[in-house]
């Protein structure tokens, strides 16, 4: 395996990006813990004091909303450092819109005009946020090369999108889709799509556990099983010969992350040297 150093500026930018992603993940975890803890505390106080009014109900709804959007954000951030990171960022945008529109709905007058429009925006963004969270967790398997996993993943992602669309269309059309008289076939179709969605969500990760990827490039130790590494060094080049087991580990990590072996090796070296 051959590795070529990247410029210091690129390494620093990647380190800052990784640090930002790590901080965002921690923030999402703290948001989940704090939000649900606050909701529990407010609920307990309200029940014990006997004073549970509209304000307390809105506070509980707000904290539950913060916790729920933090959970979806954590799912989106799972692939923020992977090749498919754009999907994660789109999911984060959907979660942010869900949070904003949800807060507006919670604290506005529910009898005032415009409630339906805000609810449609909230419901649509919420469905998209959950769907992208679902998809982003499955996209952790996007680097697998086995055909059964790749095609199973693609089919499941299509089913996730179909479920989201079939949820959203009746909301945005005020029930014009599917329309009077079409509810039965629409429900049946939705049931079929939903079953395939659940099936793929369960089967694909299980297959990924038992069906291992073969290394994309067979890298063996040219010095024998007892040698750890050979590192000829020139002015701008470092070549490493890895033992077979370590080479396979690098290839497997590269497949899981959806990157090439050199990138996976460099990432591992950076983490080890920090």
From TrEMBL:
It comes from the Bacteria. It comes from Microcella humidisoli. The chain crosses the membrane at residues 27-47, 59-79, 86-107, 119-141, 153-173, 185-211. Keywords: Membrane, Transmembrane, Transmembrane helix. This is Uncharacterized protein.
């Amino acid at each position: 395996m051959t590795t070529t150093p990247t410029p210091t500026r690129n390494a620093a930018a990647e380190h800052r990006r990784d640090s930002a992603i790590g901080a965002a993940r921690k923030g999402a975890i703290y948001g989940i813990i704090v939000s649900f803890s606050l909701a529990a505390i407010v609920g307990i106080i309200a029940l014990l004091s006997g004073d549970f009014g509209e304000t307390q109900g809105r506070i509980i709804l707000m904290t539950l909303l913060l916790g729920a959007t933090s959970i979806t954000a954590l799912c989106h951030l799972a692939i923020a450092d992977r090749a498919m990171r754009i999907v994660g960022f789109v999911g984060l945008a959907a979660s942010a819109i869900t949070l904003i529109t949800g807060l507006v709905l919670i604290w506005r007058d529910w009898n005032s005009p415009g409630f339906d429009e805000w609810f449609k925006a909230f419901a649509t963004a919420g469905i998209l946020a959950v769907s992208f969270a679902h998809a982003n967790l499955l996209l952790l398997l996007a680097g697998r090369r086995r055909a059964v996993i790749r095609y199973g993943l693609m089919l499941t992602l299509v089913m996730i999108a179909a479920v989201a669309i079939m949820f959203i269309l009746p909301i945005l059309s005020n029930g014009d889709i599917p329309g009077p008289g079409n509810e039965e076939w629409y429900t049946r179709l939705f049931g079929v799509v939903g079953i395939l969605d659940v099936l793929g969500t369960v089967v694909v990760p299980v297959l990924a556990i038992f069906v291992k990827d073969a290394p994309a490039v067979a890298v063996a130790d040219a010095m024998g099983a007892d040698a750890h590494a050979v590192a000829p060094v020139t002015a701008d080049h470092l070549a490493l010969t890895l033992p077979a087991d370590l080479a396979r580990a690098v290839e497997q990590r590269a497949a899981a992350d959806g990157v090439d072996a050199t990138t996976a090796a460099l990432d591992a070296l950076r983490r080890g040297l920090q």
